[in-house]
Each structure stands twice: as structure tokens, then as C-alpha cells.
Write a structure and sequence with these properties.
Pfam families: Polyketide_cyc2 (PF10604). With 171 residues, the chain is of the alpha+beta class. Helices cover 36% and strands 41% of the residues. 11% of the residues are buried.
Length: 171
């Protein structure tokens, strides 16, 4: 009987920790950097060329324009990706676009709200891309789960940046 009580207490504590996570952690953040051996103007152009996105994001299927604004900022797109055989549609809005300096996307992807803030700096003929990410779940349960998957999300974005580096340096 004592063993059952101990197990129940452990389960209650773990449950409280799990659900408490959603109360304490409202959003998750991380930063990544990559250096591309190309000039900033060429790197920025390649990065923002939607016809080349599939070259460095293999899951990418297509992009549809919802609302395109002059100067790019405020433009909205519907992006379709293949997630291990499952088609996922995301809505992306360009929050900031400064040529050869910065591009910021807000992505609403089936319960994940994510902001990708890319900044580009020139360093002696090379380009440093810094990615600052903020993400959160649309629901309370996802807000409880996402902090435990930060490494997974970060790994995916790091892989995409490395893929872009390899792609850009071959061009």
C-alpha cells in the first residue's frame, strides 16, 4: 500500500510540474547564427527567392499569395509543407523587410505561433545570418508541452540554416 501512495504522489507532482510549465513559460526563445561565404546582397536575394526555397527546406511544397504588399512588409502567404506524408498548411505574414538587412516572418502553423527574425550583416565579403525565434502554443496544453521540445525546434531551424548555407555557397 505504501508503494502505491509513493507512486501516486510522484504522479501528482509530475502532473503539477507539467501543468505548471504552461503557467510559468508563456513563450519560448532561442537564437542561431550561420556564416555564408557570399556577399550580403547575393545571400539576401537567394534567401528571399521563393522559387529556390525547396532547395534548402526539403519539406516545402508550395507558396500561395494571400495578400502581397508593395515593399513586401505586410504581405501574407499560405505555405504548404509535407511533414512525413502529412500535408500542413501555414499562414505566413511578413512583419519586417529591409533589403540586405532584415526579414521577419510571423507563422501560424496549426496551433504553433512563431516569429522568425532574420538579420543579415556583412563581414568581409561574407554574410552572417542571425535568427531570433519566439514561439508559443495556441492552447494551454501546447504551452505546457513546447518548452520540453525547444531543442527539437532549435535543431530543425539550425538544419535549415545549414542547408541554406550549403545551397547559397554552391550558387
Amino acid at each position: 500500500m505504501k508503494v502505491v501512495k509513493v507512486i501516486l504522489i510522484i504522479l501528482v507532482v509530475l502532473t503539477l510540474i507539467f501543468f505548471g510549465t504552461g503557467l510559468v513559460v508563456k513563450e519560448n526563445n532561442y537564437s542561431l547564427e550561420v556564416e555564408v561565404n557570399k556577399p550580403i546582397s547575393e545571400t539576401f536575394r537567394l534567401f528571399n527567392d521563393q522559387s529556390k526555397t525547396k532547395e534548402w527546406i526539403p519539406e516545402f511544397q508550395k507558396v500561395e499569395v494571400i495578400n502581397e504588399k508593395p515593399g513586401v512588409t505586410g504581405s501574407e502567404y499560405r505555405i504548404t509543407v509535407d511533414n512525413n506524408g502529412q500535408t500542413i498548411t501555414m499562414k505566413e505574414k511578413v512583419l519586417a523587410y529591409v533589403e540586405n538587412e532584415k526579414v521577419t516572418f510571423y507563422v501560424d502553423s496549426e496551433s504553433v505561433l512563431k516569429t522568425n527574425d532574420y538579420s543579415f550583416t556583412s563581414e568581409g565579403g561574407k554574410t552572417k545570418i542571425k535568427l531570433d525565434v519566439t514561439y508559443q502554443g495556441e492552447s494551454y496544453i501546447l504551452s505546457c508541452v513546447f518548452p520540453y521540445f525547444k531543442g527539437t525546434f532549435k535543431g530543425i531551424d539550425e538544419g535549415y540554416l545549414q542547408n541554406f548555407k550549403a545551397f547559397a555557397e554552391k550558387q
